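does this look right to u?? magnesium ion version
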Amino acid sequence: AAKANGRNGYQFYSDELSQEIRRERQLIERLTVAVADSSFELFYQPQIELSSKRLIGVEALIRWSEAPPSEFIPLAEKNGLINQISEWVLKTACQQISDWRDQGFECKVSINLSAVQFYQAEFDLMYADIIDSYNLPPDLIGFEITEGTLIRNIDDAIATVSRLSDRGFEISLDDFGTGYSSFSYLKNLPAKTIKIDKSFIDDLATSDLDANLVSGMISMVHSLDMKVLAEGVETTEQLQLLKQYQCDSVQGFVFSEAKNAKDFFEWLQVFEAEAKP
Ligand code: C2E
Ligand code: MG
Ligand code: MG
Ligand code: MG
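got this back:
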């Protein structure tokens, strides 16, 4: 019986594997077309400062009708499509910032950087040139790199982050707590903000361990003279605890999910009207 099961098991796995490979091939084909046509959308998720209850910026998050970014971004990184996607994201964000400025609305937009582009020689120069071509002040652009990207090559990463930061761009360290970076690295990293990963926020209100961890992380980040943003905040209980722990700002469904520019702007009108005393 064991043998038969093994055979069936093998058959099952190989079918599943070939199905997965087929889906991946199809996605790569469609993604190649999407890149050529720029058929993506850029969504914006508000970042709220807790002390003032005000918008301090938005994170730009790419959307594609066929798959979520967690699926197609890694695929694009493996198949040489990430550079074109990243350039589209940067230019779309710059155009949006510029359109908002024309309407009298100044809003910092943070862009996620892929490890692949981050470690390309002179990527920062190319990016600075593009941003210059939109005549934007650098403080309206932020860059997010994940802790995983940072620790891949810590010395190069610190050098690149330093150059970006010297040019006036704000750097955030994304998904903090998931990448095993040590505080001795963080000491030398000219990032302005550390973003605590959603996985630590999820059980904040139900687990003493997670609550202690988050509260400790916030104190340590503050002792390095950086700001803390909590990612993926969904409930008012989590929000209350984060306030209590002196967390600087938050992002999450408790305020808003990522929305297209028009819906975000409408959300902001309501949010600001409600925030008035
Ligand atoms: P990330 O940079 O850590 O972005 C945060 C993710 O958490 C986003 O997922 C956001 O929609 C989601 N999120 C925010 N608040 C909540 C919440 O309260 N609850 C829940 N359940 N989720 C929340 P999204 O947009 O699916 O993006 C996933 C990841 O894909 C991002 O993680 C980032 O690593 C990558 N990504 C997204 N857009 C881009 C892009 O333009 N370029 C690159 N290179 N990567 C991107
Ligand atoms: Mg991010
Ligand atoms: Mg994150
Ligand atoms: Mg993430």
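The first strand starts at residue 41 and ends at 49. idk if thats expected tbh
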